Structures are given as C-alpha cells and as structure tokens.
Amino acid sequence: MKAIVIREFGKPDVMKLEDAPDPIPGPGDVLVRIRAAGVNPVDFYMQTGTYPRKPALPYTPGFDGAGEVERVGADVKGFAPGDRVYIGGPGYAPSGSGTYAERVICPPAHVHALPARASFAQGAAIGVPYATAYRALFQRAGARPGDTVLVHGATGGVGIASVELAHARGLRVIGSGGTEPGLATAREHGADVVVNHRAPDYTDEIMRATDGRGVNVIVEMAAHINLDRDLTLLARGGRVVVVGNRGRVEIDARQAMGRDAAILGMTLFNASDTDLAEIHAAIVAGLANGTLNPVIGREMPLRDAARAHEALMEPGALGKIALIV
Questions:
Q1: The pTM is what?
Q2: What digits encode the pLDDT tens for the residues 250-291?
Q3: What are the beta bridge partners of residue 30?
Q4: Distance between CA atoms of 314 and 316, rounded to whole angstroms?
C-alpha cells in the first residue's frame, strides 16, 4: 500500500510517500481502507518533533480518517466488511501507523459509523475537531442551554464544530473570524452573532451583544494572542477553555478574580474511554440527523501531505483540509 512515512522530525518535507506493507489485523482489530484523511494541527506539531508526545520513528501520521471496513478480527462484533466508518480516537493504532495511508488497523472503540449523508472527506474532518469541541464545551466548561459562548476562531475545523455543537445544545453563539467568507460560514452553521477579530473594536461588539454582561464560556483557539483580553469578556463565573496555544502569555489575574472566572486547559489525549464513548455517541447522532455538517476547505491528494501541512498553519483557515487517498 501507499503511505506517508516520517523518518526524521523536521519541516513538512520530511513526509515522504512510500510503499509500505499492508497491515494485518489481529483478532481484536478492524482494518479500514482509508478514502480520506483529516489534517490537524497536532499532526504538524508531531511532525516537527516539538509536541510533548513524540511517536517512535519511523511513523505514519494522522489521527482522523474515513473509509470502508475491509476486514474485521474474529473477536470483533458490530462491524462488517463494507461498512462506511470514520476513525476517531486519542492515539495511534497499535501498529503505530496513522491515517495518512491506504489502510490502517484500529481498535473497534476508535471506529464509528459514518452515515450515508456524509462524504468520506467530511468523515475525515470529524475525529479530532468535533471530539475536541464537544470535550471543550460540555466536559470541561460544562456549557448549558441558555449560556452564551464565544467561539474565538470559529472558522477552522474545531471552530465550526464548536459552533454547530453549541447551537444544537441551545446555547447562544458568538463566533469570531478574520475573513468575510469565514464569518459567513460561521453564521450558516449556527452562530447568532459574528465579529471580525481583526477589527480594533470587536470586543465592544461582543459586550454589546451580551448587553454588557459578558459571555459564559469562551472556546479559545489562540490563547497566546487572546487570553488576557478574553478575561475581560467573561460574565461572572465565566470559563475560558484553552484549545490552542503557540507560546507564552501574560495575563492580568485580577480580571479572573473579580469574575470568579476559570481558565481550563484541555487535550483530547486526557479523555477517558467513558468520555470518548459519550463524545462519539453525540457526534454520530448529530451526523445522522443533519445537525453536524463538517466543512471541507480543501481536498488534496495524499502525495501532497507536505503541502497540506504548510497550508494548515497559514492564517485565515476555513474548515478542514482532507487528504484524498
């Protein structure tokens, strides 16, 4: 089979398309024929070798993917060859290989039904983005119907997922973005209010939209830029969940003290099996009933994985990048 292989950490060009042995599933495994692989920031950070979790070299990157079940182990129940599925789990398969490949072995807990209404590219955009959004909103921040949430960076994969999930749960959603197409997309997917975070007075717009009370929850994609300012936008008892950060940040802690506010970190790697079961039950239901509709900003062939990683880190992202396998 064809697979992207990383033999040394570094820039995106360390990713090479190579011939690799076809994986052989064990009795407790599911073998999935990948049709599309999702590209996530964590893939980029691991490729550089700067992420706290470093895969053993050589390895094939990719946490997210979608395709058909090709084979199931003798002990596996609930899946059969030909089933349309997406892959979503906290780590690589036992083989050490990720989804940037034609085939991958997965434990059954990481394989989930992909409704016919969703394309394979959309299926590849689900695992990390939607699980991260659900965990941030509901398992970390405890967001409830009637709350107001600011999705700070509502145009990327996690941002759009956060908008859709919050809207479906009955929250009032304010989405920020830096481009008009991105803001239009956020509104289409459920944002009640959109603001351009490149405008100098965007925080005033947020406070006006809440009648001066502030927001109950902020899902923050760029804490190194926004965290100090975020604290001034919170209502009493408000929570900021840090989903993304690219550097150190200085904050005025008094802004948190006066509001009884909380800054919550999160990573999907810390989700328990029970957490993940809840997350994916909600996601599968939302996909099936039309509540969740992942946005694919770009489709690129597997051989262009290096170019996809470069594009991933450019500003102004809209939706997800999917590698077509």
A1: 0.94
A2: 999 999 999 999 999 999 999 999 999 999 999 999 999 999
A3: 72, 106
A4: 7
